[in-house]
């Protein structure tokens, strides 16, 4: 039976950061992962360049049943702490937009950096190791956690659950962390896919399917939250950053508003077009403001196409309403298969917001995506993983 001070389940972003922090404090740390290599999601993130943080991170960029829970950890491990590590390892990076930092070369460098930090902190990592059972309280008081795995049995003083969410099952995602949380008396809030493309059905899908690949800027609004960015039409529905962002706020049955002329007053714009180009048809003027095929499709199904001079004011008002509140009804999401994150998870009510430690079982910690804290698109999810991993690593 091998004894560790800290066993971390999951060698993803949060688990590795926790292991580094605890290892640097002189703790004997073992990280166990059932996948054959560490940090698979880091490797595939940001299109292979890992959007590793966002310099504008604030608690407002996260969804959680308790909006305050993430504050303490985010304040103590900021984007600048992670940037310091990235710079120390001489990894070149750039800001893409809105504070999003990406590697110039490859996400592989972030995984390499984390592994080097683990090695110098004396952290042991076991990959391709499946956990069969987790027992608590049966052995010595100083090592209350006992894990039976395919690589043997281990005991630990502290157990950190960093097994992530349910998104991308092909990358090793599992519901293991939620099962473990329930085993130890924690509530798990309902989970659902977030940062995920939305699907359309019936006439909505038929009308748009052949426009797959067309992208345009929109403002997407749902449940009092808005995002202005690009929307991309797909074979089965809509995607692109604006839609991925709003998908985390949308649930079946919720109204989704899409403003196709973001930042403009649609009625003013239509009246200006009417004054400036009275003889031109709507689809022509609209085709100068939006992708042409998309404008044409709008005029076939949602608007009536005529020369601009032929519309009276009530008609212009009705058209402005369609353009500013395009009545598209989403039928669902593409689900965990393509979702970047899982919303919901281990209820933060059962955890300390400063240490991530369980309020029910001393020495048990939950960090990263398995917890009910989910970030927006743009590096916020990794920042939560680093910050919550650091918070637990400081005390475990
Ligand atoms: C395609 C994609 C792109 C993304 N891009 C970005 C981005 O650019 N920026 C950003 O901020 N976020 C991004 N994300 C989100 C980000 O990857 C996650 O929020 C983050 O990885 C969560 O870290 P974590 O350590 O909690 O979980 P994970 O990174 O998922 O790690 C969990 C680990 O636990 C292991 N595990 C699971 N079950 C078990 C078990 N039963 N036994 C042992 N081990 C287990 C898994 O194999 C995995 O290694 C992206 C996600 C996806 C899917």
UniProtKB/TrEMBL annotation:
It comes from the Bacteria. It holds the Pfam family HI0933_like_1st. The keyword Flavoprotein applies. Residues 5-394 form the RsdA/BaiN/AoA(So)-like Rossmann fold-like domain. Keywords: FAD, Flavoprotein. The keyword Iron does not apply. This is NAD(P)/FAD-dependent oxidoreductase. It comes from Aerolutibacter ruishenii. The lineage of its organism: Bacteria, Pseudomonadati, Pseudomonadota, Gammaproteobacteria, Lysobacterales.
């Amino acid at each position: 039976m091998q004894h560790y001070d800290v066993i971390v389940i999951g060698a993803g972003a949060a688990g590795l950061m926790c292991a580094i922090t605890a290892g640097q404090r002189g703790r004997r740390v073992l990280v166990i992962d059932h996948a054959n290599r560490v940090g698979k999601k880091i490797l595939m993130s940001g299109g292979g360049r890992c959007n590793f943080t966002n310099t504008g991170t604030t608690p407002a960029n996260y969804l959680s049943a308790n909006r305050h829970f993430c504050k303490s950890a985010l304040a103590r491990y900021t984007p600048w702490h992670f940037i310091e590590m990235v710079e120390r390892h001489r990894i070149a990076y750039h800001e893409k937009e809105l504070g999003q930092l990406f590697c110039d070369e490859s996400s592989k460098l972030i995984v390499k950096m984390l592994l080097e930090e683990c090695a110098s902190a004396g952290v042991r990592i076991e990959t391709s190791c499946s956990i069969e059972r987790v027992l608590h309280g049966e052995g010595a008081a100083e090592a209350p956690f006992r894990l039976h795995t395919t690589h043997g049995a281990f005991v630990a003083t502290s157990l950190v659950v960093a097994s992530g969410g349910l998104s991308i099952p092909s990358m090793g995602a599992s519901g293991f962390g939620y099962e473990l949380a329930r085993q130890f008396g924690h509530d798990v809030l309902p989970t659902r896919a977030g940062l995920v493309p939305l699907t359309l059905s019936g006439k909505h899908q038929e009308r748009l399917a052949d426009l797959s690949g067309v992208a345009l800027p929109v403002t997407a609004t749902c449940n009092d939250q808005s995002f202005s960015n690009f929307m991309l039409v797909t074979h089965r529905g809509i995607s692109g950053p604006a839609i991925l962002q709003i998908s985390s706020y949308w649930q079946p049955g919720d109204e989704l508003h899409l403003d196709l002329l973001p930042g403009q007053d649609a009625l003013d714009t239509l009246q200006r077009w009417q004054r400036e180009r009275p003889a031109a048809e709507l689809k022509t003027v609209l085709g100068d403001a939006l992708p042409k095929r998309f404008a044409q499709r709008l005029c076939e199904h949602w608007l009536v196409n005529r020369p601009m001079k032929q519309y009276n004011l009530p008609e212009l008002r009705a058209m402005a309403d369609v353009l500013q509140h395009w009545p598209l009804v989403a039928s669902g999401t593409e689900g965990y298969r393509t979702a970047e994150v899982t919303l919901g998870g281990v209820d933060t009510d059962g955890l300390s917001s400063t240490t991530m430690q369980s309020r029910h079982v001393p020495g048990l910690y939950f960090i990263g995506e398995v917890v009910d804290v989910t970030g927006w698109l743009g590096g916020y999810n990794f920042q939560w993983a680093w910050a919550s991993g650091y918070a637990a690593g400081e005390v475990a």
